[in-house]
Amino acid sequence: MRFPILLVFILALSPFAFAEHPSTGNPDRARSRLLELFIWKTSEELSLPADVEIKYGEIIRNMNERRRVNGDRMEKAIARLDELTKVADVAQPAATAAPAPAPVAKGDNKAINAALDEYRKTLAEHQKLQNDEINQLKAVLPPDKLARYLVAKNVMTEKLKTYLSKPTDAPAKDKDGKPLAEPKVIEEK
Q1: Burial class (CB in 10 A: 0-12, 13-18, 19+), 42
Q2: pTM of this prediction?
Q3: Which strand (E) or helix (H) includes residue 52?
Q4: How far apart are CA 85 and CA 155, in angstroms?
Q5: Which uninterrupted H or E stretch holds 3?
């Protein structure tokens, strides 16, 4: 029941988490703010006691950092594969000439295989990180809360992907497809 409220809250605040002044150029800060929001809301949703919430937050932060490092490695491996497999520019012959030879890859197979091996390692590490996350959380969360966490994480991830893939001028909608009301700001005096 509280979960839809959680999603609306996260989706409403996510533009602020990513909104950085262009001159700051600090995506790490935005990422950190979104992570802290995620930890806070999921721990609240799971009704975690303070001691478990601290351990839970440490695990999530640690796993997030490990995923970030692995993601960077994966991006580098893809960039290396792209570099090795770019086709050389072949001048187009005149219409009366014989057909042009097939484009030649710039890299050699040995280097390509090494880059493919690096990419495979990053994929294996990605899977290992997912298993590690479950195993570490299993040590601090009871099975029902771990299951609720996994479902909530999946739903939030999909909602965030959907939200980020839509144009920013599209209004947020509820589960029935109706536009959400503008949030009201309540100031305490």
Answers
A1: buried
A2: 0.63
A3: helix 50-85
A4: 37
A5: helix 2-18
